[in-house]
Amino acid sequence: MSKTTITPFTADDLVRRLPELGALLRACVHDGASVGFVMPCGVDESEAFWNGKVLSSLRAGGLVLLVARQGETIAGTVQLDYDTMPNQRHRAEVRKLLVHPAFRRQGIARALMTELERHAHGLQRSLLTLDTRTGDHAEPLYTGLGYRTAGVIPGYARGTHGHEYDATTIMYKAL
Q1: How many CB atoms lie within 10 A of CB 50?
Q2: Does residue 52 lie within any of the structural domains?
Q3: Closest listed residue to residue 140, CA positions, set 161, 167, 110, 116
Q4: Tens digit of each residue's pLDDT, the chain (175 residues)
Q5: Which end of the chain lies in a sparser environment, N or C, as judged by fewer CB atoms within 10 Å?
């Protein structure tokens, strides 16, 4: 197993590695991850996400995109969205923690979250929020990292197969 390195990606890095980032998103969705997409999640849709929403936020300076790699292979990502309103400059949102199914159970998600919290601290953000599908395998990870449940919203989003509506758990952590 190669050593995992975690680095922030620039807009240029994203553009250069767009096909791999799209493949990561598709692999996670096809493995059942609740990250805003339903199956089938195709190349165009997955790359449009990175090339649109994420790229524009990176260029605007309101987002940190952390990428975990083993060698040169992208194993996972997480986003820190700190583009907040003036009365919320103390907080940021954790978005799209993705670990490729082939790289799971190696501590990559935990390492990404630890690095994300370090970046949040450096940006003087003292409160992090996130949402995750209720009962998902990520929920105990977040709890183990010190995130607390603020509440549960039933029927929040369509499941990855698009037939049912899943509840989401809203979580937070004071840094």
Answers
A1: 23
A2: yes
A3: 110
A4: 579 999 999 999 999 999 999 999 999 988 878 887 777 776 777 888 999 989 999 999 999 999 999 999 999 999 999 999 999 999 999 999 999 999 999 999 999 999 999 999 999 999 999 999 999 989 999 999 999 999 999 999 988 777 789 999 999 999 9
A5: N
Question: Is the Cβ–Cβ distance between 81 and 92 less than 8 Å?
Answer: yes
Structural domain includes residue 71: yes
Q: Are 62 and 138 in contact (CB under 8 A)?
A: no
Long-range (24+ apart) CB contacts under 8 A made by 38-44 are 38/158, 38/159, 38/160, 38/161, 38/162, 39/160, 39/161, 39/162
Task: Supply φ then ψ for residue 135, to 5 degrees.
Answer: 85, 0
**Contact (Cβ atoms closer than 8 angstroms) between residue 98 and residue 105:** no
